[in-house]
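Hypothesis: this fold can be encoded by more than one sequence.
Test: take the C-alpha cells below, design a sequence, compare later.
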C-alpha cells in the first residue's frame, strides 16, 4: 500500500495478573505486569472518499468490519473529539495475525494502533495526554496497548508505569483456538479481592531477577478461564516441561498460554515440540518487543 500510513499492533501478554478489588460500578481493579511482542497485527490507513475497514489475514474471517469492530469505534471517537483534523474519509486495512478473544489484547491493540495512525494523519498535533484519555474510553486494555512497552498497570487499566529497563526474553504462545468471553471469566472468579503483586526489582534488567519475581505472582483469571476451556490446564502443563522454560502461565483472560524463555533457540525448539504435541492449536514463538 504505497503512500499509506502504517502501524503495528503488538500482542499484549500479562506475565502476572492480580485481581485486587472491584469498584462500585462493577469494574475490577487490577495489578498486572504487561509486555508486548514482535508478533503483531498490521494496519494501514489512506485517505478515501468515505470511512471503511478492510479486514484480511489468517484470523480476518473471525472479525466483523462494521461498527462492532473496535477499530471503527476508535475512528469514530477520534473524529468526534478532533473534528476537522482528518480527511473526509479514511480507509483502514487490518491484517489480522493474532487470534481473536484470546487474552492477547488483539482488539485493544488494533484500536490503539488506529489512534497512533490517526494522530500521524492529523492536521494538528495531538497531545499524548489527550490521546491516552481517548484510549481509556475505548477499553481498559487500550491505554497500555497505546504505550506498547513493558509496564506495571494498576486501577482498571488506566494507570501505567513504564519500566525503564526490561530483560531481553522470548515467548512461546499457544492458543487452543477457542474464543473466551472476558465477562464470563470474571463471572466465575471466586475471590475478587486478592493481594497485589510483590514490588518489582529495581532495575528489572536481568532475566534471573524476573524469573524469581514471577514465582511469587499468578494470574487470578486462570482458574475461572480453565472452567470454560479445560484445555488451558493441559497447555500450561505441556509448556512447563519444555527445556528452558522459566514460567508457563495463561495470559489475560485466556485462552492463550505462554512460556517464557531466555533464548530464541529455546523458544523456537519449544514451539516446534508443542506443535507436534498439541496438533490443531495455534503456536507461535516471538521475542519481546524492545524500545
Amino acid at each position: 500500500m504505497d503512500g499509506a500510513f502504517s502501524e503495528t499492533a503488538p500482542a499484549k501478554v500479562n506475565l502476572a495478573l492480580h485481581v485486587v478489588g472491584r469498584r462500585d460500578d462493577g469494574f475490577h481493579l487490577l495489578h498486572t505486569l504487561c509486555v508486548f511482542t514482535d508478533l503483531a497485527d498490521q494496519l494501514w490507513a489512506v485517505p478515501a472518499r468515505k470511512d471503511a475497514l478492510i479486514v484480511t489475514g489468517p484470523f480476518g474471517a473471525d472479525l466483523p468490519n462494521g461498527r462492532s469492530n473496535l477499530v471503527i469505534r476508535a475512528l469514530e471517537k477520534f473524529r468526534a473529539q478532533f473534528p476537522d483534523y482528518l480527511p473526509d474519509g479514511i480507509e483502514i486495512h487490518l491484517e489480522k495475525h493474532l487470534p481473536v478473544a484470546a487474552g492477547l489484547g488483539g482488539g485493544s491493540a488494533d484500536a490503539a494502533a488506529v489512534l497512533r495512525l490517526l494522530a500521524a494523519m492529523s492536521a494538528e498535533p495531538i497531545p499524548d495526554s489527550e490521546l491516552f484519555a481517548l484510549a481509556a474510553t475505548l477499553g481498559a486494555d487500550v491505554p497500555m496497548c497505546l504505550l506498547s512497552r513493558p509496564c506495571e498497570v494498576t486501577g482498571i487499566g488506566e494507570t501505567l508505569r513504564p519500566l525503564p529497563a526490561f530483560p531481553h526474553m522470548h515467548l512461546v504462545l499457544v492458543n487452543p483456538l477457542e474464543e473466551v468471553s472476558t465477562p464470563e471469566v470474571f463471572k466465575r472468579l471466586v475471590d475478587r479481592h486478592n493481594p497485589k503483586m510483590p514490588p518489582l526489582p529495581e532495575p528489572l534488567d536481568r532475566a534471573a531477577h524476573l524469573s524469581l519475581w514471577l514465582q511469587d505472582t499468578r494470574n487470578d483469571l486462570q482458574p475461572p478461564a480453565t472452567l470454560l476451556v479445560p484445555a488451558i490446564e493441559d497447555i500450561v502443563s505441556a509448556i512447563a516441561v519444555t527445556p528452558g522454560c522459566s514460567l508457563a502461565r495463561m495470559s489475560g483472560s485466556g485462552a492463550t498460554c505462554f512460556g517464557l524463555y531466555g533464548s530464541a533457540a529455546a523458544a523456537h525448539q519449544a514451539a516446534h515440540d508443542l506443535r507436534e504435541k498439541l496438533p490443531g492449536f495455534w503456536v507461535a514463538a516471538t521475542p519481546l518487543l524492545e524500545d
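Residues 106-121 form the longest helix (16 residues). The chain has two domains: 5-161, 164-287.
Hypothesis status: open.
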